[in-house]
């Protein structure tokens, strides 16, 4: 009969907390940069320049139809042969941004498509500039519409970030791998880490619903 | 150590490894289909306990990384007294993962059927089993096709994580070839291309069915 031994996990818990903090930082940075990339790509997809639209479409399809693990291997091991050498942590951030950007673009595009043409025309009639129309008339309500999809995609990003441990970035899963190989208490280490990820995903959903209440308080229609 | 160039042989070794990715995806999809149906039915059940258990199962699997689920099954097998076997561990973990996700997708499809259908079936004297079998599930399954195919793409990509616990499928084969040839650009480019060829048609199919369905329901 197996006896569980959580002592080595408790002894190394400070390292796990440090790893969890890196995971939080990595996910938040990837979310913010990835969101900007998504908005740019979504705006680019409405462009009249056809090659720009093709490039963005190709980017989205390639990322959405290949595994994240292969993407990160390609960025970390493959790009140095093109002269682009990244540290594990930067490669992890780049991979997460590129990955989130593809899914984010599709979500934002769906939001933009939900805006009725009449609203944009009304903005033009009021003499707003193109940038003002994009920012106030299109993006603000579009973001509100797709907010739930965006936040669940973000939580998915945070969970996916565990894969960056495969290139030895300093995230929570990698901290677990180190602790596991030092103590051999494999199951105990990973059950604690899994619980920590669960707590983080519950925590992030709570933060997101607070942001939703604060940012989208204005009435939808009268 | 001898470094060999990346040639046509290495290319074919990688392409052939896709059979293990396909096999793992097929097993997890079939197992997840059965598990997912049970989870979905428990989730919409009138009894409190099955509903709570199914909700907990879904929450845990959707709130934790697939990689950790693989590790837990992999090392958990050892604790339960089984020999560690990456192939079985990957199949079990991916089946559980697929059960949770398909269960949640199909719950949504079942709940999308208007309550009048169920009431009418009850009024006609159909009990639970026949009501589900002949009235609810046939209608729900039509809505379910597009998101289910979409999840299959996610599952095929998810099988790549089995490489980390040492199961030699497409991604692991790529790592092995890369260690021998040191041409990561070609190797992982090829690996990515094979995944793309597997996943892209399914993504297109899912999108087309979604459009077709939304057109037939917004009349």
UniProtKB/TrEMBL annotation, chain A:
Gene3D superfamilies: MetI-like
UniProt keyword annotation of Cell membrane present: yes
Any Gene Ontology CC annotation: ATP-binding cassette (ABC) transporter complex
PROSITE patterns assigned to the protein according to its UniProt record, in alphabetical order: ABC_TM1 (PS50928)
Recorded GO MF terms: transmembrane transporter activity
Cellular location(s): Cell inner membrane; Cell membrane
Pfam family, one: BPD_transp_1
Family to which the UniProt record says this protein belongs: Belongs to the binding-protein-dependent transport system permease family. HisMQ subfamily.
Protein's name according to its UniProt entry: Polar amino acid transport system permease protein
Organism for this UniProt entry: Rhizobium wenxiniae
Source lineage: Bacteria, Pseudomonadati, Pseudomonadota, Alphaproteobacteria, Hyphomicrobiales
From TrEMBL, chain B:
MF-aspect GO terms: transmembrane transporter activity
UniProt keyword annotation of Manganese present: no
Membrane topology: Multi-pass membrane protein
UniProt name for this protein: Polar amino acid transport system permease protein
Native source organism of the sequence: Rhizobium wenxiniae
Principal location class: membrane
Family: Belongs to the binding-protein-dependent transport system permease family. HisMQ subfamily.
UniProt domain ABC transmembrane type-1: residue ranges: 18-206
Transmembrane segments: 12-40, 143-165, 185-206
Domain of life of the native organism: Bacteria
GO cellular component: ATP-binding cassette (ABC) transporter complex
Transmembrane helix keyword on record: yes
Annotated compartments: Cell inner membrane; Cell membrane
InterPro entries in alphabetical order: AA_ABC_transptr_permease_3TM, ArtM/GltK/GlnP/TcyL/YhdX-like, MetI-like, MetI-like_sf
Pfam families recorded: BPD_transp_1
GO biological process: amino acid transport
UniProt KW keywords: Cell membrane, Membrane, Transmembrane, Transmembrane helix, Transport
